[in-house]
Amino acid sequence: MVVSHDAVEDAPPFNLTDVDRAILASTDEEFHLQTWEDLKTIIANNDLHLLKRKPSDLRRYLKWSRDIKASYGSIPNYIMLKRLKWTPLPTSTPQSGPQFAVNDPLPFADKRDFKILPNDWPYGMEPGIRHIVVWLKNRLETEPGRGDMTQRSRKQIEEFVQRRFVDRVAGLEGSREKIQWFKNWTALQSVPGLEHVHVLVRDVPEEVIEEWTGGEPAVQ
């Protein structure tokens, strides 16, 4: 059975924001690809709800999300089984979310406790900007309420991004500033329950991207 775009949008597999609904009412030709400076401003102001996918990509993402939920029960289940190949502890509950055995309780301290992959559904950004995701078995501290980062968790992420990404591209040709990162607060996460950090990179050679991601391709 073929499901129309409208049917998927009328019963979306996740909550649509006002920004999402405005995008779905527009076309790719009307869409403004977000520039590096746009992204800097959005991240600096913590206006993460303004990160947008192209209308055609958002429609495909809605349909993909619905199909994945039908096949795997949830998007986190699919990510764990197919992309990360991690098995949650049997003590995990719907309230706790997936929990994992870790080799080091300190986030980012052991490379076996995180995995870097290309984002399968990146935002609508200018050519040359790539979107990758760092998935963690460890949980990062969040503040009560909307679940934003604490000072401690922000520092842990900043230090990891510096040594893993920023230091690696220092001295490469192209734009001087090549790395930005952000972490969605809990209410904005389209893959809730699985800890992850978004990293945006520009003017970085493909071989460096593959070095970070282990050569894993994006899957749509």
From TrEMBL:
It comes from the Eukaryota. This is N-acetylglucosamine-induced protein 1. One of its GO terms (cellular component) is cytoplasm. GO terms for biological process: N-acetylglucosamine metabolic process. Transmembrane segments: none annotated. InterPro entries: DUF3605.
